[in-house]
Amino acid sequence: MNYQMNDDDKIENTNINQNEETTEVGNINYQIISKQKQRRWGGALAFNKSGNLLAAASKNDVKIWKFENGILTNPQFLKGNSVIRIIKFGQYSDFLVGGGSDEKIMIWELWKNNCKINTQLIGHNGRVSAIIISKKDDSIISSSEDGTIKIWINKDYQWQCKETLKCMTGPIYSVVENSNSDILASCSENKTITLWKQQRIITNNQLEWRKFQRIRNEDYGTKICFIGHDKLTWQPTSDGQLCIFQMNPMNFLFEIKKKIILGQGNYDFHYFQSIYSDISRLLIVRHKYRIYFLTMDENQEFQLQQTLIFSTNWNFAALSPNEEYFVTWDFQSQEFQVRLRNQINQQ
């Protein structure tokens, strides 16, 4: 099923005011409490589920720090094979997954003293662009600029590729799953958003992913994020818009509902993926030099809470699982900036 996104759609547009300095307009805001130099450029940041470890990609390596009260200590080095762009912690097990430019997915078992690469998943023929780890740590979903999505499962302590999903043409820049883990959405260079649903096949009684919708856009986008199970955000590269899609309960297809105008300017560095946390329904997105913190209210409207302004769009971020800390690294300052959520004005 195709859905053409065009100017005839009845879409509500919302503008976000731009200022020349950091703005704090809502009940949620984050203030810097510590800084730490990191001169080797970074490619990704990630917290573990407990929030007491922070991992950072640093060219071909990964550093893991102990994180306590906003302070980074006791760095540990994990060696990779190429430039690492994506890192994710397991949900419950002590392992870290990374991907990058050499087409491989690396898995480090952190409980081992030497912390060497335990497993390499080989199958993509292009740079790995996104990684999802299942809630039970028993499967990994990866997208690649080779135009495929691969489903890896852990069977008898061995990882193997179970499925390969193919889009039409062009690199896939990101893949995300909804909160029910039964829908995948990917965005590609071919100006489409492709949606997949997990279905049980009668012939073999196995769960497999099936494509059920393709949304055609006027430009390609590199950032996509689910909000709950039935809302989806997507950012085109041609302008500073944030597009909000909503599932239609009648036909279960996603339709464009709102465009939020973030700012001006075109291409934005795509490795900063949007972040959503359900605790306070907090959505963190970036366009160019600005990082926006928005929350969704009871009427499903988005309210701007804070804007952080950097001097470069080469920056990366991670939100702690409890939303208490927000950590960034940017190329201009070449330092980690740890921000603590302001507790005074929270509701």
TrEMBL record:
WD repeats lie at residues 121-152. Pfam families: WD40 (PF00400). Transmembrane segments: none annotated. Keywords: WD repeat. GO terms for biological process: iron-sulfur cluster assembly. One of its GO terms (cellular component) is cytosolic [4Fe-4S] assembly targeting complex. This is WD40-repeat-containing domain.
